[in-house]
Specification:
By secondary structure, the chain is mainly alpha-helical. Helix content is about 70%, strand content about 0%.
């Protein structure tokens, strides 16, 4: 088990360090897809605070790896977990889109690298549904409006 996975499975540590998340953000980049799947398999075993924290940290990882856990957050019964899932999907996609855009400018990369392609059509519909529910909050949370625009424009 990697140190990063061990860290994220320690609920006390993950929640306690949320105020100063630098180490956890570094660890989020170290997790591979299989380790994100392990966290996903442990989802039901943990508190809402852990789920919110894991959803937050997942926003700093590549959506192709952490996307399933962010989609799981959208299915959670806790509204805070769902909202954090949306914020983290936005964060992850926005970072990846900026990176792809930068690469395109440098090497004329193809659109195959569009991070929205990491989500299926039904996944994108699920995200849109959650955004529709929160449309009245777009003024308070402009990231949600930006996420809606990213999806509508196909990045």
């Amino acid at each position: 088990m990697s140190a990063a996975l061990e860290y994220f499975l320690d609920e006390g540590m993950v929640c306690e360090e949320l105020e100063f998340p630098d180490r956890a953000i570094d660890f989020a980049f170290m997790l591979d897809r299989a380790e994100w799947q392990i966290l996903l398999s442990k989802w039901a075993d943990h508190s809402d605070a852990w789920k919110t924290a894991i959803s937050y940290y997942a926003g700093f990882a590549y959506s192709k790896d952490s996307g399933p856990i962010l989609l799981k957050a959208l299915d959670d019964k806790n509204e805070e977990v769902k909202l954090q899932g949306l914020f983290s999907i936005y964060e992850s996609l926005n970072s990846e889109i900026e990176s792809v855009s930068h690469k395109k400018k440098q090497a004329d990369a193809s659109t195959e690298n569009n991070p929205l392609n990491n989500f299926s059509g039904s996944d994108l519909q699920k995200i849109k549904k959650e955004l529709e529910i929160r449309a009245s909050d777009f003024d308070m949370y402009p990231e949600l409006a930006d996420l809606q625009n990213l999806i509508d424009q196909g990045a």
